# Entry
Amino acid sequence: MTQSTDPAAVDPSIPRVVSASREIAAPAAVIFELIADPAQQPRWDGNDNLASAEPGQRVHAVGDRFAVTLTKGTLRPNHVLEFEEGRRIAWTPAPDDVPLGHIWRWELEELGEGRTRVTHTYDWTALRDEARIRRALRTTETNLLASIDRLKALAEAS
# Structure
């Protein structure tokens, strides 16, 4: 019998779903456009992991695919798993059409008067690759808030 070196398997108290929320003084439609257009994502990526994305990949439905170039120069294909225009979008990185087991999710709630609550979630409950698990452990609420704060600055300046 081999023992898992997956830190979350060893310690089940380690959360595999991390979320952060913040209110933004901009309409949900403005914020959603920044999220659903992969070419905009490097502008607000709080992990400083995204270098660029080709224009013309705007997401419109579950099943859509888009690709971003990582700062390491690797092209990262993504599959859209959840989509509700102006309200919710989630994708999973899927090199070689194989999902890696983690999901990036954005949910927007209109609060009225041009304000929106934005929730960003990183869900790695299905992640099994040990190297990726080590990186997943470093994705904290602080990282997610960094993305929201950059998104906030862009949306509120629009």
User: Anything to note?
Assistant: The chain has one domain: 25-157. Residues 141-157 form the longest helix (17 residues).
